[in-house]
Amino acid sequence: ILNVEQSPQSLHVQEGDSTNFTCSFPSSNFYALHWYRWETAKSPEALFVMTLNGDEKKKGRISATLNTKEGYSYLYIKGSQPEDSATYLCAFWDGGATNKLIFGTGTLLAVQP
Amino acid sequence: DSGVTQTPKHLITATGQRVTLRCSPRSGDLSVYWYQQSLDQGLQFLIQYYNGEERAKGNILERFSAQQFPDLHSELNLSSLELGDSALYFCASSGPGLAGVEQYFGPGTRLTVT
Questions:
Q1: d(Cα B12, Cα B25) in Å, to the nearest integer?
Q2: B43 to chain A: which residues are within 8 Å by CB?
Q3: What is the pLDDT along chain A (113 residues), one digit of tens a residue?
Q4: Chain A CB contacts of B58 below 8 Å
Q5: Which helix (H) or strand (E) holds B64?
Q6: What's the gap in Å between the CA of B42 and the closest CA on chain A?
Q7: How many CB atoms lie within 10 A of CB A22?
């Protein structure tokens, strides 16, 4: 069974703090790593899709890095704002027999004003 | 708004019943995915269709089935419903490619089985 682990499970920060989360995934048969942002009462929204070792992607104050050899990705948020409060999901594309996205359980971020 | 639509938004039904959830993908997307989000679990992949054909299967129960029609909309059929089937069901769609393309999620259908 392939597992995607995310840490921490939840995080409470103050407005203006910078923060980061970790996603760990199997390092073999890597195809892609996805990051999604999921606000309460909404649906998951894609942030990044990363396919190459060493990839770094950025969207505004949010950025992500990828290390496929050791099986981890970091998501960074610089200067957190209350509107960043959401659950951040990573998902590993299992390119083996199943060809599907395997989601982690997410990191719940709460930014206090 | 992702461009993916799902109906109904909410569904309440009794054990043993059968329901159909509907999904329309973003314009031009050929792939449709179905996911289940239960209270105590993360997003679980159920099944994927590509241009009308089943492409990949996850942990989908035999009581569940899906199809994608020529106009590319998809339906997820859930039968002999049990209390444990209560969950949020998401549909997502994507453009060409598999692993390296982002998926666009619909608003979900919340199913409550009583």
A1: 24
A2: 44, 89, 91, 103
A3: 678 999 999 999 999 999 999 999 988 878 899 999 999 989 999 999 999 999 999 999 999 999 999 999 999 999 999 999 999 999 998 776 667 889 999 999 999 99
A4: 98, 100
A5: strand B64-68
A6: 5
A7: 15
